[in-house]
Design brief:
The chain has helices at about 5-10, 20-35, 50, 65, 130-135, 140-150; strands spanning about 55-60, 75-85, 90-95, 105-115, 120-130, 155-160, 165-175, 180-185, 190-195. The chain is α+β, with helices and mostly antiparallel strands and about 200 residues long. The protein has a single domain, classed as Lipocalin (Beta Barrel), CATH 2.40.128.
């Protein structure tokens, strides 16, 4: 079995990390490190053709993301990261489920800049929090079109993050046609699959 298949098997059923116990976390992190050692794209920032697209989160150690699941009556749904290399934009979407008709959405948009062959700096610009119905949310790609058009107003909590100068960085430690692994400035690991 390939290291990639071993990692995918290890994270299957972990609900993006929500169900992971400490011993499982150690084994998963070891499997991630082994796969990173086999990275077929040693200079991932030079491969926009692979980096660009809509990525679905398979596993993370990010307490911030996984913490969304701790809100009473709500459950964390799918999480996407959509990268648009031509515009230097990244969009993060967290779908929130629970009470029927009240499904939520958290959307954070940012600009990224390539600073090395593996590292991107990220400057967060905007955060939208609201109900999927009020966004007329169908998919991340459709909402990105609306956001980039810039002429649509949303009935939501709409925060300008650029004023707060919130930024970070991410290292792209594994990248192929269907799988990406990132390590963030806060120590979190992200495993994503291209949809």
């Amino acid at each position: 079995m390939s290291k990639k298949a071993e990692l995918l098997r290890a994270i299957a059923g972990q609900n993006r990390g929500l169900l992971t116990q400490e011993l499982e976390r150690v084994a998963i992190l070891a499997a991630i490190a082994q796969l990173e050692d086999l990275n077929p794209t040693p200079k991932p920032t030079e491969r926009p053709d692979l980096l660009d697209g809509d990525w679905r989160l398979l596993y993370t150690t990010s307490k911030e993301l996984l913490g969304i699941d701790n809100v009473p009556l709500l459950q964390l749904g799918q999480i996407y990261q959509c990268i648009r290399t031509t515009t230097g934009a990244v969009y993060n979407f967290a779908e929130v489920e629970g009470v029927p008709w009240l499904e939520g959405l958290v959307c954070v948009s940012a600009k990224f800049e390539i600073v090395s062959e593996r590292r991107l700096t990220v400057k967060f610009e905007r955060s939208l929090i609201g109900l999927q119905r009020l966004f007329n949310y169908q998919s991340p790609a459709a909402m990105i079109q609306d956001l980039e058009a810039g002429d649509k107003k949303y009935l939501a909590v709409d925060l300008n993050l650029a004023e707060r100068d919130r930024q970070g960085w991410v290292d792209l430690t594994y990248l192929d046609e269907t799988l990406r692994i990132n390590r963030g400035n806060e120590g979190s690991v992200f495993v994503l699959a291209k949809d």
